[in-house]
Amino acid sequence: MAGNSIFVMFLLCLASFQAFASDPSPLQDICVADLNNPVRVNGFVCKDPKQAMAEDFFFPGLDKMRTPNAVGSNVTAVNVNQIAGLNTLGISMVRIDYAPYGQNPPHTHPRATEILLVLEGSLFVGFVTSNPENRLISKVLQKGDVFVFPIGLIHFQFNVGTSNAVAIASLSSQNPGVITIGDAVFGSNPKISADILAKAFQVEKNIIDIIQSKF
């Protein structure tokens, strides 16, 4: 009986733990990142709070459109690297500009959930659930619509309109990170062996060579 009681107590202890999917809570009002400090922790070392100023919590120009890249989009990030005062606060944001039929290609944020608001245009967006289902959950968004991409899942946005589109996204991390699938798989340094990728994607090696040459 004593053994059974201990086992039940152990299960109750396990059940009492909670999982959190965002950055840890701060332990002080502000912790402005000292980006020049060589010490590296899980985040950035704080500078003396008495030296904090308004510029540490400010970023200008998010109203400006950026020129789209080769895939027809441009992401303007506003995270701890741009606003040092975001350090330990567990939040950041981006502006995304899309050319007509441009896309923000499939990617993931390993440390953040993303919530996206369409400011202009029409976007086809979606994310894929994890193995084994690999289910695509997608929707066409119009101006004023909001969509959520859960933490760590592959997602994308595609401008289905004939004019430029703009979106603002907030992320649940001061430094959410981004892994663009094509860049990571076909543009790694050094390269992943074409033989490995050919077998993984079940195509001929010369096809992999062609794709890798694009990255």
How would you explain this protein's 3D organization?
By secondary structure, the chain is of the alpha+beta class. The protein has 4 helices and 10 strands. Strands 1-2-9-4-7 form a 5-stranded antiparallel beta sheet, with no helix packed on it. Strands 6-5-8-3-10 form a 5-stranded antiparallel beta sheet. A hairpin with a 7-residue loop joins strand 5 and strand 6. Helix 3 (194-201) crosses helix 4.
Q: Give the overall average pLDDT.
A: 90
Count of beta strands: 10
Separation of the first and last Cα atoms: 64 Å
**H and E string:** HEEEEEEEEEEHHH
Coarse morphology: globular
Structural class: alpha+beta
Helix proportion: 10-25%
Task: Name the strands of the widest sheet in spatial order.
Answer: 1-2-9-4-7
Poorly predicted tracts of residues? 7-20
Rg (C-alpha, Å)? 21 Å
What is the number of helical segments per DSSP (H or I, 4+ residues)? Answer: 4
Proportion of beta-strand residues:
25-35%
Biggest beta-sheet profile: 5 strands, antiparallel
Family: Belongs to the germin family.
Main location: secreted
Keywords: Apoplast, Disulfide bond, Manganese, Metal-binding, Secreted, Signal
Protein name: Germin-like protein
